[in-house]
Structures are given as structure tokens and as C-alpha cells.
Amino acid sequence: MGNVWRLGLLAAAVLCAQPLPTGPQVLTFFSSVDDTDQPYALYVPRRFDPAAKYPLVISLHEAGTNHRLNLRRVFGRGNLPREPDSEAGNRPFPPFPEVDFIVVSPLARGSLGYQGIPEKDVYDVLEDVRRRLPIDENRIYLTGVAEGGAGALWLGLTRPDLWAAMALVCPSALPETEELLGNALNVPVRIYQGALDPLVLPETNRRRRDRMSAAGVRVDYTEYAAVKHNAWDYAYRGNGVFQWFQAFRRDPFPERVSFATRSYQYRSAYWVEIDGLTPGELASVDAAFANPDEIVLRTEGVDGLTLKLDPCPRCRGARSLTVRIDGAPLRVAVGPRLSFSKVAGTWRVQPYRRPEGSKGPGLEGPIAQAIARRHLYVYGTADNPDEEELQRRRRVAEAAANWARPPERLLLSLRVAADAEVSESDLQTSDLILFGTKETNRLIALLASRLPLELSPSAADYGLVFVAPGLNGRYALINSGLPWWTGAEQARRPGVPPKPLPYELLRSFGDYLLFKRSLQEVAVEGRFDRNWKVTAGEASKLTASGVVRIR
Length: 551
Known about the structure:
15 helices, Rossmann fold, 3 domains
């Protein structure tokens, strides 16, 4: 029996060690968001050598298509004549031309864009491919089509130090990226655009090109005359994008770094890390080596930062540095991490200390961050509601958890539970979307003493939604009174579809929002300060409503 057991283990080890087949294929990774296996399409070079390191291209699909069709398109093997995307995305892979790149296309849940959960999927796919195959970390490239092009730009600008270059095919508008275009200073960009594209207007990407160029970004722009919204048929023809990528390698320690952000989630680029900022307000650093023993930094909205100089190829043996921050010279010994903090308006050589309980990495808002990873929708039963009321509460939570727009089906499973059903494991691993008040929901009652806002139970015609620190370093999103999507179609909030799903609305909110009767009548909305407190001006508006208590 012991020999059989050992033979079984040996067989399992051999199977696990078997290399992936070459050519196009579909694999899965395990997602911690909802404990599901999520697919992605992968191409492995036909002359694959496991002893070599390969460049990697991550390619993002457009809305309404999938990972399989996207992989075909990047190899110039798109739709057949008059073939709809729905059919093209489900056909067997045709023969692909040979390239010495590993290419991967995540499904990323379908047509949800590339922020939040889909963004996490892309990085989870990257880690899965790194685990399976030998990747050259200095030759990782991004490309994408339409919504996928906008997604590639978002990923490239928020974490620029990962990528060697970006090729964006008719990338659609994404307002959040426009103020970050300078972050691509060290990431060459090529934009492909159809001159007659009715969905992504050429003016959008011409302006984007001009702003990038003005910021010092190396940007190429190719516009195809008489081409509509199928620029990928031309951009990806003849392996052209791979030939363009081949010219670029990532510089992990560039001479100059220009980086802007509004959040701790994206706080680092290359050898510069922002330690202190106000979430929601733009913070920026421009850092450059003036010579081997002098670094010049210009900052805005930054209260603390660290220079990561291990190793420091630009220092060229210098034992000390002059670090000139906003004109103030500071002499420091060269070390692996040099930290600076602004105290009473003056920069000092000392680490930045965030006040305990203040906003920081992983807990900074806005509201949409509570649904950007594993989360749970919880309705209340603490007041022993009758069956009719119980079902009504469950339906509200289920509506919030439904992210699929018919007839679309998403590979996303979001759990709905009563407050009494939430386990200790849930509290450790999940952000909580809590409906009700402390009188009706046990978990809101548990958090009540630390929550910054509270809606009066008698405020029948009001809705309050806000995000706050919850338990175990997780978010709690509280929705008391009317559901946050009440009257959403009539409200037409900026950046939100005409008939929005509940989750889509959350992306348009700050940290809190109070409305009366419907979203057409917003009383007040905004961001909490660094300490999760309402600012004085907004506090007076909330108090004036007569239905909100501020702690």
C-alpha cells in the first residue's frame, strides 16, 4: 500500500512538471475574489525553450468580445468576413504565425472595463503566467483594443515601472487617465486609430497624443484613412505590433521619474514612492539625477516620500547625496531607502508617519474601492422582520450583487447573505456591503461606534451611502434608507451609463452621498478628510438635513 501511495505521488509530480503545449490555448487561474477559475487565452512560441526567458505581451479585449477572439486579433487572425464577434469568439483557434513572444489575453470578467475586479484579474493572470513560464521582466508589454486600449493605458499609467512599452488600438476615453499621461515618461507608446471611427473619435486620441508629447512621452501615432472601428485589422497585420515591441526594454532605474496619483493604491514608480498624500487629491513627484551625487525633486500634494536606491546604478559609487526637494537641499548618506517628510512646510530627513486610524494603503476610499476585491452583500435581520420584509431586504441586496447586463453572462459570483450568516472567515477576508441601520443589521451595530455617519431610522425618504474602515483592515460600505440606485436613470450622473446597474453608480461617488427621494436630489456628497472625518463645510450641510448624525 505504501508503494502504491508513493507511485501516486510520483505520477502527480510528473504531471505537474509537464510543460505547456505550444501554440494558442486557454488556461485558468484561481481568483480569490469569488473562489472561481477564470479563463485566459495564451500563446506559447512553437520553438519554446524552457531555459530561455521570453518577452510577454498582455493583450486586453474590447467590450462585447472575449479573450479567445482578442488573442486571434493580436496575431492578425480576427473575424472572418461578415462574422459576428459572438461567433468569432467561440471558434477553434486558427493557425497562428510564429513569434518568439508569450502572449496572454485575460477574459477579465467580460465587459466590466479594467478597473477594480477586472484589473485585479489582469495582475492575477500576470502572476499565473510568471509561475508557469520563464518571463523576461524587462520585456513585458501592453496592448488592447477600444475599451481594452483604455484599460491598457490605465494599467500602464498607474504602474508604469512594470511595462516596457504600450500599443493602444483605438483606445476609448477614460477621464481618469488624462491627468496621468506624463507617467508614461519612460514607457514608449504607440496609438493606432481609424480616421472614420464612429465609436472612438479620432480627435480623442489626437488630443491624447499631443498631451503625451507635451509631457515628454515618446508617443507614435498612426491614423488609417478610410478605416472605421476596426483599426486592429491594420495595427496587428503582419506581426507589426510584435516588431514594434521588439525595439524596447524596460529601464528599471531611469534617470528621471515623473509620477502623479490620487491614491495610495498607486503610490510607487521605479525608485520613487509617495508615503504621504491626501486620497482624492492629485499628488505628484518629478525626480531626476542632476549628477551622480545630486537628485532634484519637485513635488505637489506630497507630505512624505522615499527614494529606493538599492541598487542605484545612477549613483556611480557616490557615498553621499544632495537631495534637493522643492528647492531645499538635504545632504544624506547613500542608503537602500532614503525617506523624507514635510513638517510644518519644511522637508526633513525622516520617515513620514501617518496618524493612527488615518487613510492609508488598503483603506482610503472612495466607495468603489469596497467592491474592487472580494466582498459580500449583507442584509439585516436583527429586528426580526416578517417574511415579506425579509424578502424585500434580500431582493435589495441581490440587486446590488447583480453585475450582469442582460443578455450578458459574467463569470463573477458575488455572495449575498443575511447578517446572521456571516462567518468569522468572511469578516477576515471580505469587504462588507451592509444594508440597513444599526437597529436592523447586526454588523452595522457592531461597527456603529466607529462609523463617521449615521442615518436616522425615521428618515424614510432619504438614502445614505458611505464607505469607512470596517473589521480586520477591510472596508465597510453602509447603505441606510433608500438603495443608492433609487432614481438613477433620471439622475444621469457623469460617466454613468443611461440605464446603470447599481455597481456602475458607485464609481461616480466619493466617500459618502446623501440624497432625498432619488439621486436626482443629492443633498451632499464628498470625500472624508485624511482621518475619515467630514470636513467642516460639508458637515453643516449634512447636519442641516436633520436626518444624519456625525461622529
